[in-house]
Each structure stands twice: as C-alpha cells, then as structure tokens.
Amino acid sequence: MTTGAVIFAQNNDTVDYVKLAVFASRRIQKFLDIPVSIITDSRGWLEQSYPDHGFDKIIDAEISNKYYRKRFHDGSLASKTSEWKNLSRTTVYDLTPYDKTLVIDSDYIINSDILRSALNKDEDLQLYRKSLDLAGWRENKQFQRINEFSIPFYWATTFIFKKNNVTESFFSLIKYIKENWDYYTALYNIESILYRNDYAFSIAIHIMNGNQEGYFAQELPGTMVYTTDKDLLIGIDDTKLKFLVEKQNHLGEYIVSTTTRLDVHVMNKISLSRCLDE
Amino acid sequence: MDERIEKAFEVANYMATLSNQRRLAAEEFNQKIVYYINGATFKITPELIGFVSVMADRPFDLILLDSNNFPVKIENPKKFLADIIAVYDTTSKDYLAKITAIKSKRKIADMVDL
C-alpha cells in the first residue's frame, strides 16, 4: 500500500499558494517522511519559480472559471478581496496517486510527527474535530457545530483517507453536496453562502453515519490548532512559530504568542507568504 | 497618560501574554502525552497508568479502550506500562520546565523567546 501526501495550490492575485505548498511539502517530508504531490492549476509557475520544489508528482487541476470571491485579512486592519478557488477538493479521490493519502491545506504548517501514527492506522477517514484558537478569547462556536442547533463541525484542512469503496462513496457525496449547495445550506441552516469544504465534509460525514453520530470518521490525534487571518505570523524558526494575536476589544492591537512543536493552521496566508520571503 | 496607568497597561499586556503562553504550553503537553500502539491511540493520564499498573500482573488479557473508544488488546502490558510511564515522565518534566521558565520571565520578549 502506498502512502503519501497531497497539497492543493491554486494561485490568485493575492496569495502564491504554490509557494506555500512548496514550504508545506518540505515540512511534511521533514517530519513525516512521506512523498508529497501537488494538485495545481499553475504547473508553469511552479516549474519556473520553484525548480527545486521536491514534489513527487505534479498533478494538473482542472482550470475553471468558477470560483468565489472572498476577503483575505492580513491582521485586523488590512484586507483584500480576491478569488477563492476551493472547489476542486472533491477531486482528490480520483487524482491522488496514493492508496492512503494525507491531504493538507497549503497554509497548514507541520511542526511535529504527530500525524505519523495516524498514517499507520487502518481507518477509512481521519480528520480533526477538536480545535484550539491561539487567541483564547475568540468565539469558536462555528468550529464546534455548523450552526448552534446542527451537526458537528469537522475540519477539511487536514485529513487522511484510504482509497476504497466506502471513501469513494464519501467523496461522491461531497461532490453531490457541492453541486446542490443552495439546497444543503437551506437544509442545514448554514449562514455562509460561500461553499466551504469544512461544511460539505461535515454534512457528508453526518450522512455516512446514517444522519446521526457515528464512527465513520475517526479523529486525528491531537487538536487542530489555528490562528485566524486577523492574526499575523511574524516568524518561523524551525519548529517555533511566532504570532501577533488579535487583542480582545482593541482593534489593531496584538499580543505576542509563540508555539513550539505544534502543527498550526495559519489562516493569514499573506503573512505566511511574507515570512517565507524573509 | 499618567505614569501609573501606563505601567498598569504594560502589566496587563504582560499578564495577557503570560496567560496565552501558559495555555499554549498546556496544549503542547496534551499533544505530547499521546501514545500509539497497534493502530490505537491513548492519551496518557495518571488514571491510565494506575489502571495498567494494577492490571499488568494479572494472569488474563489486558483490554483497553483507546481515545476513539475502540477496544485494544495489549499484548505486553508490562512493556506498555513502562513505555507510557516514560513518555509521561519526560513530557511532564518538559512541561514543568517550560511553565517555570515562562513564569520567571518578567519581559514579554524574554517570555516568547523561550
């Protein structure tokens, strides 16, 4: 059975996702020691700008004109609206070259080998349900249930799946949910009109469990540690990350926070990109 | 601004940073006290250590529920016990050292450089 990781990278005019993916790939190889492939619509940019990228395989994502527009914050005071291409995640089942695949967002920084054990587990699907915000004061209800009265929230940022009939059905279901997004937002009372992979995964897991809590999806070890795009990443020193975390009730003010040997989802891709340039 | 008020805000900022760093140190500890065996995951707690200590010498199979509530047969309970104690020992010492160091730093810059 082959095991490897896959990262999606589809650039827009604000974020060079390919650059983030190259960095994320190096972290995976360093801590988890598995091959990494990239699924991208920017093969030319990757080969031209990062010739020593180290990817196992470069897989072309379908170039689509269908995308959302989303506001990308860079701290609590600056933001920019750009394209948000998050619609191809459902293709990972067909595109991955591995039997068992770790899928991560390009803004997920691996700093430990905690996922290594999960790669050795014989489970169909593993992903995070528990999460921890670097800013302790922020409301995180939206990351516990997809709304106050609804089903549990699962993170599609990082997951491991094994190719088989069951997971094939799971990804078919996600594709169906995506194609009928308006219906599912109404059915599950989701406020966001933007398609979100986290929500689609959560709904599909709920359906796979027979519309109740169940064992289809197993939790990845540890917790999904994250910072929102209202925070700033200001330094990366091996396994240590330094952040400015938004301060409560003081717009534009921050407190410094550092993490050591924790995998962190850095939603402020602009500051992550800036750090990689330093 | 009154000097005392300015000082008070500085202290408040220091306390907010201290509090957050303690929270993150606790999370680092929680992620490190995880033990894996035969595809099962265990969070090592004093209760787990105590239970396995009691059961390790008994002449029948040791079955534990892992973090996902799946039953797992522990083939060699004595080795399992020694391993989880070793992980817990190392990790808790690291945690203590980190908390002690964080509390000893009086400047934010020193605290976050740990």
What does this structure look like?
The complex is a heterodimer of chains A (278) and B (114). With 278 residues, chain A is α/β, with parallel strands linked by helices. Chain A has a single domain, classed as Spore Coat Polysaccharide Biosynthesis Protein SpsA, Chain A, CATH 3.90.550. Chain A is built from 8 helices and 16 strands. In chain A, the strands form 4 sheets. Chain A has a 7-stranded mixed sheet. A 4-stranded mixed sheet of chain A has the order 7-16-12-9. Chain B is elongated and about 70 Å long. Chain B is built from 4 helices and 4 strands, in the order αββαββαα. The relative contact order of chain B is 0.16. In chain B, α1 packs antiparallel against α3 and α2 (46-55) packs antiparallel against α3. Chain B has one domain (3-112). Chain B is of the alpha+beta class and 114 residues long.
Compact description:
The complex is a heterodimer of chains A (278) and B (114). Chain A is of the alpha/beta class and 278 residues long.
Q: How many structural domains in the coordinates of chain A?
A: 1
- Ends of chain A: how far apart? 39 Å
- Individual helix count of chain B: 4
The span between the termini of chain B is: 32 Å
How does the major sheet of chain A shape up? 7 strands, mixed
Categorize the overall geometry of chain B: elongated
Counted by DSSP, the helix tally of chain A is 8
The H/E string of chain A reads EHEHEEEHEEHEEEHHHEEEEEEH
Bin the helical content of chain B: 55-70%
Mean pLDDT over all positions of chain B: 89
Structural class of chain A: alpha/beta
- How many E strands of chain B? 4
Question: For the residues shown, what is the average pLDDT of chain A?
Answer: 92
CATH topology of chain A: Spore Coat Polysaccharide Biosynthesis Protein SpsA, Chain A
Beta content of chain A comes to: 25-35%
- Got a strand count of chain A? 16
**CATH hierarchy: architecture of chain A:** Alpha-Beta Complex
Largest interface: A-B, 28 and 24 residues
